[in-house]
Amino acid sequence: MPTAPADGPSLARFGLGTAAVGRPGYITLGRDVDLPAERTVEALRQRTHALLDAAYAAGVRYFDTARSYGRAEEFLGGWLDAHPQAAADVVVGSKWGYTYTADWQASGVPVHEVKEHSAAVFDRQIKETRAVLGSRLHVYLVHSVTPDSPALTDRALHDRLAALAAEGVRVGLSTSGPAQAETVRAALEVTADGRPLFAAVQATWNPLETSAAPALAQAHAAGWLVVVKEGMANGRLADRNATGPDTAALRELATRIGTSCDALALAAAAAQPWADVVLSGAATPGQLSSNLAAAELDLTQPQLAALASMAEPAQEYWRTRAALPWA
Predict the structure, then answer these.
(1) What does the pLDDT read at residue 12?
(2) What is d(CA 20, CA 215) in angstroms, rounded to the nearest whole number?
(3) Which domains occur in the chain, in start order?
(4) Where does residue 320 rank: exposed (0-12), middle (13-18), buried (19+ CB within 10 A)?
(5) Which of 97, 135, 247, 264 has the most CB atoms less than 10 A away?
(6) What is the largest CA-CA distance in the chain?
């Protein structure tokens, strides 16, 4: 399992997420130019495989997907089938709890995914995940847990998750929303058969949304795998979008040290002492290469302090995110 080295970020700390390429519609800014005009299943399968090829060649060893990412699990499973040596060398994380409902539509869909954290949904989705990933599932997360989720209290579900953990799968949760820290702290208290149930968390952290950091430090101290998602704030911190006063500190520091805004944002995430893996959500090989340049940056404390001024109130950040269009 990836762990954080003591001497600063390295490429092993960066993973690849498949949310942006496993389905035709998502909320990452700029998808109109990032993806082909004809977003067929085969076109996105080829794009996903090209990204996986490039990421693995660059040293990335953590790949993230989810049941609700359209056909992303299927795409990843096919790539693993075609690359048995790589399959034996990588860590695969997936998530359950959302059902994809957009029927391969990019926009104009009332609901793209439906969340339900019930034992019945787990029973269905673990079978679906196993059907495409087989035994190559290493981390399985309850998708997008909030403090009111039954995933924190349902004992029947906890028994199922504990049984999966007993098979050697690291069980955990992903978080979203302004109460991420509250969710993580509640999850730290959940037990099954007298032992802590969860051992991994995937949470949003970026220079605009830093509120979960203290709780993530607690999770890391408890031995959890901590994976950072949305390190570029769904594209808000990419060079082409980081144009407003809210990102001035990022632009100024990127210019001063001669890097891109996206690499700097991801390097800031990797510099957090509790972060084990930081995900790239790249949709193109060029974006992936730019993202992975973060591994070359060893940010100083004054540089990190310069970015701290960007942090928004959590409620404001998540309101902005909720308003991003699916495209």
Answers:
(1) 81
(2) 27
(3) 11-322 (3.20.20.100)
(4) middle
(5) 264
(6) 54
